[in-house]
Amino acid sequence: MRAVTVRPGRKDSLEVRDVPDPTPGVGDLLVQGLAVGVCGTDREIVRGEYGWAPPDRERLVLGHESLGRVRQAPPGSGFSAGDLVAGVVRRPDPEPCGACARGEFDMCRNGRYTERGIKDIDGYGAQVWCVEADYAVRLAPHLRRVGVLMEPATVVAKAWEQVERVGGRSWFEPRRALVMGAGPIGLLAALLGVQRGLEVHVLDRVTDGLKPALVRELGAVYHTEDAERVVSAVCPDVVIEATGANGPVASPRSRAPRPTGWCA
Questions:
Q1: Whole-angstrom Cα distance, residue 189 to residue 178?
Q2: Do 189 and 233 belong together in one domain?
Q3: For the chain, which end, N or C, has fewer CB atoms within 10 Å of the first or last residue's CB respectively?
């Protein structure tokens, strides 16, 4: 089968090549790949700045934003042939830290976790892939066109979860949210904010085109003014930082570009 591979640590080593067909282990799903997303992390790996191949090989199969259709599922797994699925990216370390032992392995404390398509495990960027049933997420059939956004959406869902955990330690009834940045992560953050019934505002440098239109379609308000002015006017109860830019935020037009893919 064909797969998108790279040699981590070597710039511009990206190559589509033939690799052996996967063999499902006990409890694994065999999945036909339908789509794979590309984000800033993938770009860093291709540039040789990040990433680790499996211990016994030089090359890594890329792809952590996945969508596939189940070809084969083990009995009792809860999945059936034809199901749409996305694969979970991270796996806990073999000798779990406190966070991993409690199922919070996205908060791993010792760095021994592994990640599909990023760190020590091949990703989903192949014609066919396998995934443990416990690390597969079933998607409704009507999400076929957008299902590959499941993984980046979980980044934002985690951010909102943490916001609500922190707020829940005391009285917390947020009304307004400000999302800094209207890239994919920012737009997903705005979407989840609107779904929570909040008045959502989005700040970005782009003054026209697709970003403002998408924000309005989500039911949020788009801003391009100075950040301090927007904060003063909106008085947000929640701020989601999704610019992926270093430096001060006083003037969003002065930020140096940086790949998105994280938020706080």
A1: 10
A2: yes
A3: C
Using CA atoms, how far apart are residues 43 and 163, in angstroms rounded to an integer? Answer: 29
The answer to whether residue 263 sits within a structural domain is no
Q: What are the distances in angstroms from CA 208 to CA 98, 181, 229?
A: 47, 14, 20
pLDDT digits (tens, 9 = 90+) for 91-132: 999 889 999 999 999 899 999 999 999 999 999 999 999 999
Q: Which tokens in the block code for residue 126? A: 């192949």
Cα 108 from Cα 113, distance rounded (Å): 7
Q: Indicate the pairing of strand 114-116 with strand 90-91.
A: antiparallel
Among the candidates 145, 179, 203, a domain finishes at 145
Whether 163 and 133 map to the same domain: the answer is no
Cα 236 → chain centroid:
25
Question: How far apart are the C-alpha atoms of 97 and 229, rounded to whole Å?
Answer: 43
End position of a domain, from candidates 145, 164, 188? 145
Identify the domain containing residue 187 by its residue range.
Answer: 153-254
Distance between CA atoms of residues 83 and 161, nearest Å? 27
Q: Can you tell me the distance from the alpha carbon of 58 to that of 252, in angstroms, rounded to the nearest whole number?
A: 41
